[in-house]
Design goal:
Elements: H1 16-19, E1 29-32, H2 35-52, E2 71-76, E3 82-90, E4 99-107, H3 117-131, E5 136-142, H4 146-151, E6 155-162, E7 165-172, H5 176-184, H6 188-191, E8 217-218, E9 224-230, H7 233-238, H8 240-257, E10 261-271, H9 274-291, E11 295-302, E12 307-315, E13 330-335, E14 340-341, E15 350-351, H10 358-365, H11 367-371, E16 375-378, H12 383-395, E17 398-402, H13 414-419, E18 425-430, E19 443-451, E20 456-459, E21 465-469
GO biological process, one term: thiamine biosynthetic process
Organism: Kineococcus radiotolerans
GO molecular function, one term: thiamine-phosphate kinase activity
């Protein structure tokens, strides 16, 4: 993070607890800077970068110091003395698009013998960058210090010359999307191979020929499409009414992604007692009423741990597949940007549906059926990027997202929006020039493309492409 001081050794291993010795007092602590800390940090920068290294004349302040979005982290001794610091801020003016830079990493001359101050500040900056939703985090560091960043897992990008001194652009590999994909979707092909989720793509495969890995499954010999989703048990305990609502929402979204008109639902409900069951059922009923889709029957069991799954049935004579895309297709996101984070699920669940009128819900739900894209998938557990990765995988392609073009609510960071469950959001792919129908209150925008290869890249305004998903998502391959 340009410019910085000489190498700092990794901190010694803390062994006091394991050995039974009295706990050692930390030699420094990294914290978010107070106004007083920031003043001390600026003074330290001037002492090192102007006085000691001669990289600047008079002062090293720049426009980033005036950016109200910046964050400054400092290392402080137990006595309160600031002995190091670093700042991070968005790399672009205007709305934060999830591209951040670290800079002005500095360690006081007398503190370099403490060991690990620089490394601790870099690690803390990485954690804070992910906290604010960054999906790209970079720094320009003096060439002699690039090895420190590489030891900390940063990637070397290119050589630079700044302030007349050799520098290297380094990039921290933000793995947020890949971690989500690995946790939610990567095991599927192996787990479901015995059910026809492996190499078999014939009529006996999951979903049937051409629909493996889709949100719903066409019922052979009929115009019916069936979809089934379960709710995470912890959600039933924390917010049972919302869990009942979401059980309807996610299943009707699955039908909507295939262009099917919903006709009814079945539920399988388990609860520890009648009170819990009643709250879950009230959420089911409210959602079924809002969308105008009846619950036709199901099964209920009491005296057991809470569980809920819903099966939804819809009709269409020509289901829209997730695997209908091809390289060169335009990717579009159609999403409801109204609403806000569900209480207790900030950064994970965006509630855009619970206050919508039924006619708006149905207008959004019929978007794919009326528009007939070549491929479609609703954004669910894997988030926007992971869902696009599944659509691309089913289509036998890779994908790129133009980060700045993605429709996004102002209250959501890029990192959160790209990885959350967004209420109503459809990813579609079609030949260039395809014109979608009106999506009711949802916002629709072209924001990427399918490309040759595999995985998902994020394309930034400077033309750089960073990898968000390295390879296929589920391992099923093309549908």
């Amino acid at each position: 993070m340009e410019p910085r001081t000489a190498h700092a050794d990794p901190p010694p291993l803390e062994v006091s607890i394991l050995s039974g010795l009295p706990r050692q007092v930390p030699r420094f602590r990294v914290e978010v800077a107070s106004p007083q800390d920031e003043a001390a940090y600026l003074t330290l920068r001037r002492d090192v970068f102007v006085g000691e290294q001669g990289l600047f004349t008079g002062d090293d302040r720049d426009e980033t110091d005036d950016d109200p979005r910046r964050r400054v982290l400092v290392a402080r001794t137990p006595e309160g003395r600031v002995v190091g610091g670093v700042r991070l801020a968005p790399a672009t003016a205007g709305p934060d698009i999830g591209w951040w830079r670290g800079s002005r990493l500095v360690v006081a001359t007398g503190a370099r013998s403490l060991g690990g101050v620089g490394s601790a500040l870099v690690r803390a900056a990485c954690a804070h960058a992910e906290e604010v939703g960054a999906l790209r985090f970079e720094a320009s560091v003096q060439a002699v210090n690039a090895v420190l960043f590489q030891r900390l897992g940063w990637e070397r990008v290119r050589e630079l010359d700044l302030h007349g001194t050799p520098h290297v652009l380094v990039r921290y590999p933000v793995e947020r999307v890949q971690r989500l994909v690995d946790a939610t979707k990567a095991p599927l092909a192996a787990l479901l191979a015995d059910l026809g989720g492996g190499a078999d793509t014939g009529a006996g495969a999951l979903g049937g020929a051409g629909f493996r890995g889709d949100d719903g499954a066409p019922v052979p010999g009929t115009d019916l499409v069936a979809a089934c989703d379960a709710i995470v048990p912890s959600m039933l305990e924390r917010d049972p009414v919302w869990a009942g609502w979401c059980a309807v929402l996610v299943n009707l979204n699955d039908l909507a992604a295939m262009g099917a008109t919903p006709v009814g639902m079945l539920d399988a409900l388990a609860a520890r007692d009648a009170h819990q069951a009643q709250r879950i059922v009230s959420g089911l009923r409210a959602a079924a009423t809002a969308w105008g889709v009846p619950v036709l029957g199901g099964h209920t069991q009491l005296g057991v741990p809470a569980a809920l799954s819903v099966t939804a049935l819809g009709r269409t004579g020509s289901p829209v597949p997730a695997g209908g895309g091809r390289a060169g297709d335009e990717v579009r996101l159609t999403a409801d940007l109204c609403g806000g984070w569900r209480p207790g699920y900030r950064g994970a669940q965006w509630d855009s549906t619970s206050t919508r009128r039924g006619e708006d819900l149905r207008a959004m739900g019929s978007f794919v059926a009326r528009s007939r894209p070549d491929a479609a998938k609703d954004v669910s557990m894997a988030g926007l990027v992971g869902t696009l990765g599944m659509l691309a995988e089913a289509s036998g392609t890779g994908a790129e997202i133009d980060v700045a073009a993605v429709p996004r609510p102002g209250a959501a960071s890029v990192g959160d929006w790209f990885t959350c469950f967004p209420g109503f959001a459809m990813v579609t792919a079609s030949r260039p020039g395809w014109e979608p129908q009106h999506a009711g209150p949802a916002t629709s925008a072209a924001c990427g493309r399918l490309v040759a290869g595999a995985g998902v890249g994020l394309r930034w305004p400077d033309g750089e492409v960073t990898r968000a998903v390295r390879d296929t998502v589920t391992g099923w391959g093309p549908a």
